Amino acid sequence: MFDAAVDAASPASRLPSFLPDPPRGRTIVVGAGKAAAAMARAVETHWPEPLSGLVVTRYGHAIPCDRIEVVEAAHPVSDAAGARAAQATLERVRGLTEDDLVLCLLSGGGSALLAAPAEGVTLADKQAVTRALLKSGAPIGEINCVRKHLSAIKGGRLALAAAPAKVVTLVISDVPGDDPAVIASGPTLGDPTTSAEALAILERRLDTVPDAVRAWLLDPRSETPGPGAVRADVRMIATPAKSLEAAAAIAREHGYTPVVLGDRIEGEAREIAGEHADLVQCLMALTRRRRGRWAVLSGGETTVTVRGGGRGGRNAEFLLALAVALDGLPGVHALAADTDGIDGSEDNAGAVLGPETPTLARRLGLNARDRLDDNDGYGFFQAVGGLVVTGPTLTNVNDFRAILIDPSVASREFR
């Protein structure tokens, strides 16, 4: 099911049918995100006319292209390579005419990768703010609101730089609700948020707001172009909902009834795990009264408020909290993983859980609840052999969670 979810968002298969007609003038390709290099390769393969450009992707996510330059940079906290790539992107789109086309390729991760600090704000300021917001458990919408107003390229500013050229944006969504203004912080779309909202988020989430950041957000120039201020031709080529549909089809093929909770689930990972555990108990009780097998599927983007010193992303945290809640309930197996192949900043996509996992952990001297309190999902599942390691998948439609409920299966070993 996880493989099907990832395949449903493959740039190679999804992107070609969304390409626009070639322009009379030049074609410039720009973009950012974990899927940006794979998207660029798909454009090169199917574009019949000359083109040039630059895209930036996360370290380890690049694939070679012939006509489009591919740059790697840091995620989720920006680095100097991302800042240089953002400036180079702005230079690529300046000085174009109405006959030219800018093809912008965006996917999850693009906001951190396009790091062009606003006037008076340093890269170090942006890095500090991003780290603090991530640690606070802020949802992606809040983080990207702040990023837009601290940027010289996000929140529609890239489209303004490209005017009067036509801009067509191809998007792989990684956000709940598929709002293109949120994905990669919407560099080619008008922004409905305000600088006042960004400052309010920082004051609520952070102990202190850097002086330069506060000063810029109080400056009228920090306001982004509003909705309607830029022309927007946005084409959504892959979404989390389509990936869940593909996974549900696999479940049906194997005799499971899919229960799709949706692709917009947000909140603390451990709290979402508790809600999933309650549903599992209800479905298990139903199954005992009449035979059946269930596959509970969900997507979205949970968050983790970091209080401990352990390792682990939000999917490992979700699954560890689920392990605590179910405590080896027979016949229940689960997977939680990020479709980009990277759970937070670790080297795993996520993890798997079986009814035997808590028993194995206790034999190893591991206390699941203590590990959860320390935010150490990675360490826990590494010890029990439950990590899912895929490497970069070159796409990203956010988190994927699947829970299989079949009382006839007491235990299953995942390999």
Task: Lay out the secondary structure.
Blueprint: H1 2-7, H2 11-14, E1 27-32, H3 36-46, E2 52-58, E3 68-73, H4 80-93, E4 101-106, H5 110-113, H6 123-136, H7 140-149, H8 157-162, E5 166-172, H9 195-205, H10 211-217, E6 233-238, H11 240-253, E7 257-260, E8 265-268, H12 269-289, E9 294-303, H13 314-326, E10 332-338, E11 350-353, H14 357-363, H15 368-373, H16 377-383, E12 387-388, E13 399-405
Parallel strand pairs: 1-2, 1-4, 2-3, 4-5, 5-6, 7-9, 8-9
Antiparallel strand pairs: 9-13, 10-11, 10-13, 11-12
Helix pairs in contact: 7-9, 12-13, 13-16
Walk me through what this model shows.
The protein is an alpha/beta fold and 415 residues long. The chain has two domains: 2-116 and 151-190 and 225-238, Rossmann fold (3-Layer(aba) Sandwich), CATH 3.40.50.10180; 241-405, glycerate kinase, domain 1 (3-Layer(aba) Sandwich). The chain contains 16 helices and 13 strands. The longest helix is centred in the last third of the chain and has 21 residues, at 269-289.
- The CATH homologous superfamily of the largest domain is named Glycerate kinase, MOFRL-like N-terminal domain
Binned, the helix content reads 25-40%
Helix and strand run: HHEHEEHEHHHHEHHEHEEHEHEEHHHEE
Shape: globular
Strand content: 15-25%
Biggest sheet record:
7 strands, mixed
- CATH-derived architecture of the largest domain: 3-Layer(aba) Sandwich
- Number of separate strands: 13
Q: State the end-to-end distance.
A: 15 Å
Total count of domains: 2
- The number of helical runs is 16
Q: Please state the structural category.
A: alpha/beta
Rg is 22 Å
